Amino acid sequence: MLKVAEVTKYYGDFLAVDNLSFEVKEGEIFGLLGANGAGKTTTFRMIMSLLEPDHGEITLDGKKIDYDTMEKVGFLTEERSLLTKMTVEEQILYYGRLKGMAEDVILKRLDELLERFGIWSYKKRKIKELSKGNQQKIQFISAIINEPKLLILDEPFTGLDPINVKKFKEEIFRLKEKGCMIIFSSHQMEHIEQFCEKLVLLVKGKVVLSGYLKDIKKEYQKMNIFIQGGVSKEELEKVPGVLKVVQVADEKQVKIQDESVIGDVFKVVKKYDTRKFVVEEASLNEIFIEKVGEVL
Which residues of 282-296 are buried (b: 16+ CB within 10 A; e: fewer)? Predict the structure, then answer.
């Protein structure tokens, strides 16, 4: 288990991370969210032992993360961190050796991953000759070459088309099934919803939201109703508990205060020829925007 316990970090007088606590268990994908400058990168660097917290403790399976422990960790940074004059093979051999892996093991694992991502023919090509999307694949491979026990993914889908996003997702779930602990960070909330059961939302270093995603959505209460039919936007806006009505093409999105308003909206809608009436929980993107906006 990864345990981040009451961790605080200052840069001079600037408080970057304020009393942050969370746990990630084996086979769990955990979401660490926040707008730019929220403290995510500082948190990653402390987990990686690149920075020491001023207060609190970070442990992996009960032990402080040190140089030896790092052999069990993989980190995909948001910024490109490849040595572009190296070939793909040279690059991965370099990273694998840093993780204490034998050369034959590295090459076997590399061949498997290149095949899986459909870029086996690029093995002897220099990084700088690859497209941005294929460079991202190599960066991902470098992060998982050691089959890490803990994997940190910071915006992993940058520069990828939908087909390759699917391949990345399959590999992430494969690692999860093997018991890998994964911390996932992205500004694309739909990816967080697909992957993460638990999450923490940071704003200016402080936790403003944490817990299981299903509980967060339940506590938020606000919901959306999607309607296609003859009812007018103006009539829906008059229903008590309706917060906002947005018309998109032939569909109306009705944001309501809580589930008690559903029946009242339906009473209005059923008077008309209605082709669609679908109730959904608020998206994580809506919750993120509201919670961040309350603090900023």
Answer: bebebbbeebbeeee
d(CA 101, CA 138) in angstroms, rounded, equals 17
- pTM of the shown model: 0.88
CA gap 226, 109 in Å, rounded: 47
pLDDT at 118 over 80: yes
Phi and psi angles of residue 294, each rounded to the nearest 5 degrees, phi first: -65, -25
DSSP string of 31-69, one letter each residue: EEEESTTSSHHHHHHHHTTSS--SEEEEEETTEE--TTG
d(CA 121, CA 25): 37
Residue 180 backbone phi and psi in degrees, to 5: -65, 135
Do residues 106 and 145 lie in contact, with contact meaning Cβ atoms separated by under 8 Å?
Answer: yes
| pLDDT for residue 106 | 97
Using pLDDT thresholds of 50, 70 and 90, give the confidence band for residue 294.
confident
Domain 2-217, CATH: 3.40.50.300
Instruction: Write down the CATH number for the domain with range 221-295.
Output: 3.30.70
